[in-house]
Amino acid sequence: MGLLQRYQAIRSHSVAICAPLAIEDYVPQPSGDVSPPKWHLGHTAWFFEAVVLAAHAPGYREFHPRFGYIFNSYYESQGQRVLRHRRGDLSRPTVQDVLAYRAHVDHAMHALLQTALAPDVVALIELGLQHEQQHQELLLTDIKYIFAVNPLQPAYLGSHDAQAHAVIDGTAEFFSDGKSPAWIASAGGLVEIGAVDQGFSFDNERPRHQVWLEPFEIRTTLVSNREYLAFIEAGGYRNAQYWFAEGWDWVKQGNTAPLYWNLVDCDWHQFTLHGLQPIALDAPVTHINWYEASAYCEWAGLRLPREAEWETSAAHFAWGQRWEWTQSAYAPYPGFTPSVGVVSEYNGKFMVNQMVLRGASFATPPGHARRSYRNFFHPHLGWQYTGLRPVRKASAP
What percentage of the chain carries pLDDT values higher than 90? Predict the structure, then answer.
Protein backbone atom coordinates (compact mmCIF):
# COMPACT_ATOMS: atom_id res chain seq x y z
CA MET A 1 0.00 0.00 0.00
CA GLY A 2 1.38 3.41 -0.96
CA LEU A 3 1.88 6.23 1.50
CA LEU A 4 -1.20 8.15 0.29
CA GLN A 5 -3.38 5.06 0.60
CA ARG A 6 -2.04 4.34 4.08
CA TYR A 7 -2.68 7.93 5.08
CA GLN A 8 -6.29 7.73 3.90
CA ALA A 9 -6.92 4.38 5.58
CA ILE A 10 -5.43 5.34 8.94
CA ARG A 11 -7.11 8.74 9.08
CA SER A 12 -10.49 7.21 8.19
CA HIS A 13 -10.10 4.61 10.94
CA SER A 14 -9.94 7.29 13.65
CA VAL A 15 -13.29 8.72 12.54
CA ALA A 16 -14.76 5.21 12.25
CA ILE A 17 -13.90 4.49 15.90
CA CYS A 18 -16.05 7.46 16.91
CA ALA A 19 -18.94 6.66 14.54
CA PRO A 20 -21.00 4.72 17.16
CA LEU A 21 -20.86 7.68 19.57
CA ALA A 22 -23.65 10.13 20.26
CA ILE A 23 -22.63 13.74 19.89
CA GLU A 24 -22.65 14.11 23.69
CA ASP A 25 -20.05 11.33 24.01
CA TYR A 26 -17.34 13.37 22.28
CA VAL A 27 -16.85 15.90 25.11
CA PRO A 28 -16.68 14.33 28.62
CA GLN A 29 -13.36 13.99 30.43
CA PRO A 30 -14.10 12.21 33.72
CA SER A 31 -10.40 11.83 34.55
CA GLY A 32 -7.26 13.79 33.80
CA ASP A 33 -5.72 10.55 32.52
CA VAL A 34 -8.17 10.30 29.62
CA SER A 35 -9.02 12.79 26.89
CA PRO A 36 -12.34 13.53 25.17
CA PRO A 37 -12.80 11.79 21.80
CA LYS A 38 -13.22 15.21 20.18
CA TRP A 39 -9.77 16.21 21.43
CA HIS A 40 -8.12 13.07 20.02
CA LEU A 41 -9.57 13.81 16.58
CA GLY A 42 -8.37 17.41 16.73
CA HIS A 43 -4.94 16.63 18.16
CA THR A 44 -4.07 14.08 15.46
CA ALA A 45 -5.02 16.67 12.80
CA TRP A 46 -2.93 19.29 14.60
CA PHE A 47 0.10 17.00 14.58
CA PHE A 48 0.12 16.81 10.78
CA GLU A 49 -0.54 20.55 10.54
CA ALA A 50 2.19 21.60 12.99
CA VAL A 51 4.86 19.00 12.24
CA VAL A 52 4.42 18.39 8.50
CA LEU A 53 2.35 21.01 6.69
CA ALA A 54 3.57 24.17 8.42
CA ALA A 55 7.18 23.38 7.53
CA HIS A 56 6.93 21.41 4.27
CA ALA A 57 3.81 22.51 2.38
CA PRO A 58 4.53 25.87 0.70
CA GLY A 59 1.59 28.24 0.96
CA TYR A 60 -0.26 26.18 3.55
CA ARG A 61 -2.74 28.24 5.58
CA GLU A 62 -3.60 27.05 9.07
CA PHE A 63 -7.24 26.24 9.69
CA HIS A 64 -7.67 28.38 12.81
CA PRO A 65 -5.09 30.48 14.69
CA ARG A 66 -6.19 29.21 18.14
CA PHE A 67 -6.47 25.51 17.34
CA GLY A 68 -2.81 25.00 18.17
CA TYR A 69 -3.50 26.21 21.71
CA ILE A 70 -6.42 23.77 22.03
CA PHE A 71 -4.93 20.68 20.39
CA ASN A 72 -1.23 20.80 21.28
CA SER A 73 -0.58 18.01 23.77
CA TYR A 74 2.83 18.54 25.40
CA TYR A 75 5.13 20.18 22.84
CA GLU A 76 6.73 23.08 24.67
CA SER A 77 8.39 24.29 21.46
CA GLN A 78 4.92 24.86 20.00
CA GLY A 79 3.84 27.28 22.70
CA GLN A 80 1.14 27.41 25.38
CA ARG A 81 -1.78 24.99 25.42
CA VAL A 82 -4.91 24.00 27.28
CA LEU A 83 -3.94 22.05 30.39
CA ARG A 84 -4.44 18.33 29.95
CA HIS A 85 -7.05 17.95 32.68
CA ARG A 86 -9.10 20.86 31.25
CA ARG A 87 -9.62 19.45 27.75
CA GLY A 88 -13.15 18.34 28.60
CA ASP A 89 -14.14 21.85 29.70
CA LEU A 90 -14.44 23.09 26.12
CA SER A 91 -17.78 22.85 24.34
CA ARG A 92 -16.22 24.64 21.38
CA PRO A 93 -14.89 23.94 18.84
CA THR A 94 -17.84 21.73 18.00
CA VAL A 95 -17.48 18.21 16.70
CA GLN A 96 -18.41 19.50 13.25
CA ASP A 97 -15.68 22.13 13.54
CA VAL A 98 -13.14 19.43 14.41
CA LEU A 99 -14.23 17.24 11.50
CA ALA A 100 -13.93 20.26 9.20
CA TYR A 101 -10.42 20.80 10.60
CA ARG A 102 -9.53 17.21 9.77
CA ALA A 103 -10.90 17.63 6.25
CA HIS A 104 -8.85 20.81 5.78
CA VAL A 105 -5.65 19.06 6.91
CA ASP A 106 -6.42 15.96 4.82
CA HIS A 107 -6.93 18.08 1.68
CA ALA A 108 -3.51 19.69 2.16
CA MET A 109 -1.87 16.37 2.99
CA HIS A 110 -3.33 14.71 -0.10
CA ALA A 111 -1.80 17.46 -2.24
CA LEU A 112 1.55 17.13 -0.48
CA LEU A 113 1.59 13.34 -0.77
CA GLN A 114 1.27 13.59 -4.55
CA THR A 115 4.53 15.53 -4.84
CA ALA A 116 8.13 14.32 -4.72
CA LEU A 117 9.03 14.20 -1.04
CA ALA A 118 12.43 14.26 0.61
CA PRO A 119 13.22 11.28 2.86
CA ASP A 120 13.04 13.40 6.01
CA VAL A 121 9.51 14.54 5.11
CA VAL A 122 8.44 10.97 4.42
CA ALA A 123 9.81 10.02 7.84
CA LEU A 124 7.77 12.78 9.51
CA ILE A 125 4.60 11.64 7.74
CA GLU A 126 5.24 8.06 8.83
CA LEU A 127 5.71 9.28 12.40
CA GLY A 128 2.38 11.13 12.11
CA LEU A 129 0.64 7.94 10.99
CA GLN A 130 2.17 5.92 13.82
CA HIS A 131 1.17 8.71 16.22
CA GLU A 132 -2.41 8.56 14.96
CA GLN A 133 -2.48 4.80 15.49
CA GLN A 134 -1.37 5.33 19.08
CA HIS A 135 -4.32 7.66 19.53
CA GLN A 136 -6.70 5.15 17.98
CA GLU A 137 -5.95 2.78 20.82
CA LEU A 138 -6.29 5.63 23.30
CA LEU A 139 -9.62 6.57 21.71
CA LEU A 140 -11.05 3.12 22.43
CA THR A 141 -9.74 2.92 25.96
CA ASP A 142 -10.80 6.48 26.77
CA ILE A 143 -14.30 5.86 25.36
CA LYS A 144 -14.50 2.76 27.55
CA TYR A 145 -13.59 4.80 30.64
CA ILE A 146 -16.08 7.53 29.76
CA PHE A 147 -18.84 4.94 29.42
CA ALA A 148 -17.79 3.02 32.53
CA VAL A 149 -18.21 5.96 34.90
CA ASN A 150 -21.66 6.73 33.50
CA PRO A 151 -24.37 5.34 35.84
CA LEU A 152 -26.18 3.94 32.78
CA GLN A 153 -23.03 1.95 31.86
CA PRO A 154 -23.78 2.08 28.12
CA ALA A 155 -22.23 -0.36 25.68
CA TYR A 156 -19.92 0.82 22.93
CA LEU A 157 -20.43 -2.46 21.08
CA GLY A 158 -24.16 -2.99 20.78
CA SER A 159 -25.26 -6.45 19.67
CA HIS A 160 -26.57 -5.10 16.37
CA ASP A 161 -24.17 -2.19 15.90
CA ALA A 162 -22.48 -2.98 12.61
CA GLN A 163 -20.50 0.27 12.72
CA ALA A 164 -18.76 -0.60 15.97
CA HIS A 165 -18.15 -4.23 15.10
CA ALA A 166 -16.53 -3.16 11.84
CA VAL A 167 -13.98 -1.19 13.84
CA ILE A 168 -12.96 -3.78 16.43
CA ASP A 169 -13.62 -7.39 17.37
CA GLY A 170 -15.05 -6.93 20.83
CA THR A 171 -15.05 -10.66 21.54
CA ALA A 172 -11.31 -10.35 22.04
CA GLU A 173 -11.94 -8.85 25.47
CA PHE A 174 -13.09 -12.32 26.55
CA PHE A 175 -10.58 -14.33 24.51
CA SER A 176 -8.86 -17.36 25.98
CA ASP A 177 -6.84 -19.86 23.99
CA GLY A 178 -7.71 -22.56 26.53
CA LYS A 179 -4.08 -23.56 27.01
CA SER A 180 -2.69 -24.53 30.38
CA PRO A 181 0.22 -22.45 31.65
CA ALA A 182 3.62 -23.68 30.51
CA TRP A 183 7.10 -22.27 30.89
CA ILE A 184 9.79 -21.46 28.34
CA ALA A 185 13.36 -21.79 29.58
CA SER A 186 16.04 -19.34 28.51
CA ALA A 187 19.73 -19.84 29.16
CA GLY A 188 20.20 -16.08 29.29
CA GLY A 189 23.63 -14.77 28.44
CA LEU A 190 24.50 -11.81 26.22
CA VAL A 191 21.49 -10.90 24.07
CA GLU A 192 20.59 -8.07 21.71
CA ILE A 193 17.45 -5.98 22.02
CA GLY A 194 16.08 -2.91 20.31
CA ALA A 195 14.74 -2.02 16.90
CA VAL A 196 16.30 -3.52 13.80
CA ASP A 197 17.07 -1.28 10.84
CA GLN A 198 14.18 -2.45 8.66
CA GLY A 199 10.83 -0.73 9.06
CA PHE A 200 9.58 2.01 11.36
CA SER A 201 10.53 2.35 14.99
CA PHE A 202 10.26 5.11 17.58
CA ASP A 203 13.47 6.71 18.82
CA ASN A 204 13.04 5.09 22.26
CA GLU A 205 13.47 1.64 20.66
CA ARG A 206 16.98 2.54 19.50
CA PRO A 207 19.86 1.89 19.40
CA ARG A 208 20.01 -1.86 19.30
CA HIS A 209 22.37 -2.98 22.04
CA GLN A 210 23.51 -5.90 24.16
CA VAL A 211 22.14 -6.88 27.56
CA TRP A 212 23.25 -9.61 29.96
CA LEU A 213 20.53 -11.93 31.26
CA GLU A 214 20.72 -14.62 33.90
CA PRO A 215 18.86 -17.87 33.13
CA PHE A 216 15.08 -17.58 33.57
CA GLU A 217 11.74 -19.12 32.63
CA ILE A 218 8.84 -17.11 31.22
CA ARG A 219 5.23 -18.26 31.05
CA THR A 220 3.59 -19.00 27.72
CA THR A 221 0.20 -17.70 28.89
CA LEU A 222 -0.97 -14.54 30.58
CA VAL A 223 -2.33 -14.63 34.12
CA SER A 224 -6.07 -15.23 33.91
CA ASN A 225 -9.01 -13.66 35.71
CA ARG A 226 -9.43 -16.96 37.58
CA GLU A 227 -5.85 -16.83 38.87
CA TYR A 228 -6.11 -13.17 39.80
CA LEU A 229 -9.40 -13.79 41.60
CA ALA A 230 -7.57 -16.35 43.74
CA PHE A 231 -5.16 -13.57 44.75
CA ILE A 232 -8.09 -11.33 45.73
CA GLU A 233 -9.83 -14.09 47.70
CA ALA A 234 -6.57 -14.91 49.49
CA GLY A 235 -6.54 -11.38 50.89
CA GLY A 236 -4.12 -9.93 48.37
CA TYR A 237 -5.51 -6.42 48.77
CA ARG A 238 -5.46 -6.70 52.57
CA ASN A 239 -1.84 -7.75 53.05
CA ALA A 240 0.82 -5.04 52.82
CA GLN A 241 3.66 -7.54 52.45
CA TYR A 242 2.86 -8.06 48.75
CA TRP A 243 2.95 -4.38 47.84
CA PHE A 244 5.54 -1.70 47.27
CA ALA A 245 5.02 1.23 49.62
CA GLU A 246 3.49 3.45 46.94
CA GLY A 247 1.29 0.57 45.84
CA TRP A 248 0.04 0.04 49.39
CA ASP A 249 -0.74 3.75 49.61
CA TRP A 250 -2.80 3.30 46.44
CA VAL A 251 -4.64 0.31 47.97
CA LYS A 252 -5.46 2.34 51.08
CA GLN A 253 -7.27 4.84 48.88
CA GLY A 254 -10.03 2.24 48.63
CA ASN A 255 -8.82 0.06 45.76
CA THR A 256 -9.77 -3.59 46.27
CA ALA A 257 -9.91 -5.05 42.73
CA PRO A 258 -8.83 -4.24 39.17
CA LEU A 259 -10.35 -1.29 37.37
CA TYR A 260 -13.84 -2.05 36.00
CA TRP A 261 -14.41 -5.02 38.37
CA ASN A 262 -17.71 -4.78 40.25
CA LEU A 263 -19.44 -7.10 42.72
CA VAL A 264 -23.05 -7.57 41.60
CA ASP A 265 -25.15 -9.76 43.93
CA CYS A 266 -21.94 -11.33 45.28
CA ASP A 267 -20.66 -12.22 41.78
CA TRP A 268 -17.83 -10.43 40.03
CA HIS A 269 -18.66 -8.53 36.86
CA GLN A 270 -16.45 -6.42 34.63
CA PHE A 271 -17.31 -3.39 32.54
CA THR A 272 -16.40 -4.06 28.90
CA LEU A 273 -17.01 -2.54 25.49
CA HIS A 274 -20.23 -4.60 25.59
CA GLY A 275 -21.26 -3.00 28.88
CA LEU A 276 -21.25 -4.78 32.25
CA GLN A 277 -20.62 -8.51 31.84
CA PRO A 278 -19.85 -11.45 34.16
CA ILE A 279 -16.13 -12.00 34.57
CA ALA A 280 -14.78 -14.38 31.93
CA LEU A 281 -12.68 -16.46 34.31
CA ASP A 282 -10.37 -17.97 31.71
CA ALA A 283 -9.69 -14.72 29.86
CA PRO A 284 -6.48 -12.85 30.71
CA VAL A 285 -6.81 -10.40 33.56
CA THR A 286 -6.69 -6.85 32.28
CA HIS A 287 -6.80 -3.22 33.44
CA ILE A 288 -4.42 -3.93 36.30
CA ASN A 289 -1.77 -1.37 37.12
CA TRP A 290 1.90 -2.05 37.76
CA TYR A 291 1.39 -2.13 41.53
CA GLU A 292 -1.24 -4.84 41.15
CA ALA A 293 0.83 -6.85 38.69
CA SER A 294 3.88 -6.83 40.94
CA ALA A 295 1.79 -7.61 44.05
CA TYR A 296 0.24 -10.64 42.34
CA CYS A 297 3.71 -11.90 41.40
CA GLU A 298 4.96 -11.43 44.97
CA TRP A 299 1.99 -13.44 46.28
CA ALA A 300 2.50 -16.18 43.68
CA GLY A 301 6.26 -16.47 44.23
CA LEU A 302 7.00 -15.12 40.75
CA ARG A 303 8.14 -11.81 39.31
CA LEU A 304 7.56 -9.53 36.35
CA PRO A 305 9.95 -9.94 33.40
CA ARG A 306 12.65 -7.49 32.51
CA GLU A 307 11.88 -5.99 29.12
CA ALA A 308 14.95 -7.70 27.63
CA GLU A 309 13.66 -11.06 28.90
CA TRP A 310 10.31 -10.38 27.28
CA GLU A 311 11.69 -9.22 23.94
CA THR A 312 14.14 -12.09 23.52
CA SER A 313 11.47 -14.68 24.39
CA ALA A 314 8.48 -13.25 22.52
CA ALA A 315 9.06 -15.31 19.38
CA HIS A 316 8.14 -18.40 21.41
CA PHE A 317 4.69 -17.39 22.71
CA ALA A 318 1.57 -15.68 21.41
CA TRP A 319 1.41 -12.02 22.40
CA GLY A 320 -0.80 -9.08 21.50
CA GLN A 321 -3.92 -9.77 23.63
CA ARG A 322 -2.90 -7.40 26.42
CA TRP A 323 -0.10 -4.93 27.07
CA GLU A 324 2.22 -6.71 29.49
CA TRP A 325 3.86 -5.01 32.45
CA THR A 326 7.58 -5.48 32.95
CA GLN A 327 9.77 -4.73 35.95
CA SER A 328 11.86 -2.36 33.82
CA ALA A 329 11.81 1.35 34.47
CA TYR A 330 11.33 3.48 31.36
CA ALA A 331 14.82 4.81 30.73
CA PRO A 332 16.95 5.57 27.66
CA TYR A 333 18.88 2.79 26.02
CA PRO A 334 22.68 3.19 26.07
CA GLY A 335 23.56 5.67 23.34
CA PHE A 336 19.97 6.92 22.98
CA THR A 337 19.62 10.04 20.84
CA PRO A 338 16.23 11.77 20.57
CA SER A 339 14.81 12.59 17.16
CA VAL A 340 15.63 16.09 15.97
CA GLY A 341 13.30 19.07 15.70
CA VAL A 342 9.89 19.38 17.31
CA VAL A 343 9.61 15.58 17.59
CA SER A 344 12.59 15.54 19.94
CA GLU A 345 9.90 15.95 22.63
CA TYR A 346 8.07 12.80 21.51
CA ASN A 347 9.58 10.27 23.93
CA GLY A 348 12.78 11.29 25.64
CA LYS A 349 11.40 13.78 28.14
CA PHE A 350 9.10 11.13 29.64
CA MET A 351 11.90 8.79 30.63
CA VAL A 352 11.38 9.12 34.39
CA ASN A 353 8.99 7.61 36.96
CA GLN A 354 7.29 5.30 34.47
CA MET A 355 7.36 1.55 33.82
CA VAL A 356 7.71 -0.26 30.50
CA LEU A 357 4.97 -2.40 28.95
CA ARG A 358 5.61 -4.76 26.06
CA GLY A 359 3.44 -6.39 23.44
CA ALA A 360 0.15 -4.91 22.26
CA SER A 361 -3.57 -5.37 22.82
CA PHE A 362 -6.54 -6.28 20.65
CA ALA A 363 -7.24 -2.51 20.56
CA THR A 364 -3.84 -1.86 18.95
CA PRO A 365 -4.37 -1.05 15.24
CA PRO A 366 -3.17 -3.73 12.79
CA GLY A 367 0.44 -3.29 11.75
CA HIS A 368 1.31 -1.08 14.69
CA ALA A 369 2.78 -3.75 17.02
CA ARG A 370 6.32 -5.13 17.05
CA ARG A 371 8.53 -6.93 19.56
CA SER A 372 10.79 -3.93 20.16
CA TYR A 373 7.89 -1.53 20.93
CA ARG A 374 8.31 0.18 24.32
CA ASN A 375 5.03 1.41 25.77
CA PHE A 376 5.19 3.19 29.13
CA PHE A 377 2.85 4.37 31.86
CA HIS A 378 2.97 5.54 35.45
CA PRO A 379 2.65 2.62 37.90
CA HIS A 380 -0.83 3.57 39.18
CA LEU A 381 -2.50 3.58 35.75
CA GLY A 382 -4.57 0.65 34.54
CA TRP A 383 -7.10 2.06 32.10
CA GLN A 384 -5.25 0.57 29.15
CA TYR A 385 -5.59 -3.16 28.36
CA THR A 386 -2.76 -4.12 30.69
CA GLY A 387 -2.02 -7.62 31.97
CA LEU A 388 0.96 -9.69 33.06
CA ARG A 389 3.11 -12.64 31.99
CA PRO A 390 5.25 -13.78 34.93
CA VAL A 391 8.81 -15.01 35.08
CA ARG A 392 10.46 -17.40 37.54
CA LYS A 393 13.93 -18.68 38.29
CA ALA A 394 15.33 -21.24 35.93
CA SER A 395 14.76 -24.81 37.09
CA ALA A 396 17.77 -26.69 38.36
CA PRO A 397 19.39 -28.85 35.64
Answer: 90
